[in-house]
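Write out this protein's structure.
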Amino acid sequence: MASRIEQAQNTNARTGRLQRGFPIGETLPAESTARDAVRDSLLSSRRFGTVPSGGTVDAWTLTGRGGLVVEAMTFGGIVMRLLAPGRGGKLDDVVLGFGDLDSYLAGHPYFGAITGRVAGRIRNAGFSLEGKRCELACNEPPNHLHGGVCGFDKRIWDATPVNRADGAPSLRLEYLSPDGEEGYPGNVKVAVTYTVTDENVFLVESEATSDRTTPLSLTYHSYFNLAGEGSGSIADHRLEIPASEFVPVDENLSLTGRLESVARHGNDFRHSRRMGDAIPQLYKNHGDLYMLPERPESEVTVAARLEDPGSGRVLTVLTTERYLQLYTGRYIHCGRAGKSGVVYGPYAGMCMECEGYADASNVSLRKGTLLRPGQTQRRATAHAFTVNTA
């Protein structure tokens, strides 16, 4: 019998032509007034606040015609709200976050943010590249985590609406990361495009160039709770990951640089498992970095399938990336109330981070992570929301 993941791989029409790749959203020639009016009704913005340095932060809302709604702000590209339909068409916000900018500025565990230049932990806060040692900001000793002290998650991005031929609401966020930022070499131009399709797919697409060779591996870092943020633990969620190998970590959660089979460990999600049963079997109850099936660089594969039996919501994650980092939300300790007024605790949400291998020193595992002058790195991840009515 085919697994739920295999069934999801065949739902090509449902997920918006995801099996053959994602075209990066491009601005089209002059659009008709009617099309512009439709786009504007699905894409809107508002002033969200100001950072201490004086920069203005805007919030943009993308309203899909299938019911999916995404609200993201220009600070860190953070997705603040993601409303997804459940049984009976009931909309719930399924990502953790806050309702005001000050709460984000006070510090949080990367709720909904674009993390980079490199997502994940880099052992000993540095790497060797082309015979040279690059020392990075050590913001989680002894590791460099998610781009450093002031990574992409804490930068203000420039936002521009994208005109798509299908009329789907789409927003392009751009940022120039200067040479030496957080210790990384090269001036890097990065663009991340958010799109909400008619099929209730939230697309996250990125493209980047650099004038020097540098590692670059972004991820979208939302914490999902398909029962609704503030509803409690994700213990009853069921997860499936089609990966037979993972990268173990040491006591500091630093990657060891070798692959092992999931068959000998308690982190095997090749068949659907209830999170409450699986978490106690995971190292430090944290979650691991899984190597996804080998394929051409631009080819899409299913990375994970998450289901909340109570609401019927199903999230299928598809990606061009080589790795999936599972994080159970073990260390969530905010101390501040989230959007619904509930203070989030451990396991209030979980992350499925599609990314490259963090440590550029590891030649065998870093494939596709290095960005060289003259190249354009393109990556895409889709979050396809459906409802199990059974």
